[in-house]
């Protein structure tokens, strides 16, 4: 997954129901870090920002060779 986040921030993402949000309007997913996680460049007084993953179906159409090859898996 390509992002501007550090490895530790991606590792700290939580899939707890209260930290995971699906947006049906654009197909994206918003994740929050585990409680108590503090990023390397984050001040303790700052809250963690949500991490939004856009829908891949909007980036890769059904006609794309790569997406149709994965559908058989």
Features:
elongated; 15% strand; alpha+beta
Strand content: 15-25%
Q: Return the string of H and E elements.
A: HEEEHH
Strand order in the sheet with the most strands:
1-2-3
Look at the helices and sheets and give the structural class.
alpha+beta
Q: What is the arithmetic mean of pLDDT?
A: 77
- Percent of residues in helices comes to 10-25%
Describe this structure in words.
Residues 51-73 are annotated as: Disordered. The protein has 73 residues and is of the alpha+beta class. It has helices at residues 7-11, 56-59, 65-70; strands at 20-23, 28-31, 51-53. It has a domain at 7-56. A hairpin with a 4-residue loop joins strand 1 and strand 2 (28-31). It is elongated. The model has no long low-confidence stretch (mean pLDDT 77).
Outline of the structure:
The chain is α+β, with helices and mostly antiparallel strands and 73 residues long.
Layout of strands and helices, then pairs:
Blueprint: H1 7-11, E1 20-23, E2 28-31, E3 51-53, H2 56-59, H3 65-70
Antiparallel strand pairs: 1-2, 2-3
Region (Disordered): 51-73
């Amino acid at each position: 997954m390509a992002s501007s986040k550090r490895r530790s921030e991606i590792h700290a993402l939580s899939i707890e129901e209260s930290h995971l949000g699906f947006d049906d309007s654009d197909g994206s997913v918003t994740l929050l870090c585990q409680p108590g996680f503090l990023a390397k460049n984050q001040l303790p007084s700052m809250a963690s920002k949500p991490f939004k993953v856009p829908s891949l179906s909007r980036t890769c159409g059904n006609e794309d060779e790569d997406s149709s090859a994965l559908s058989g898996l």
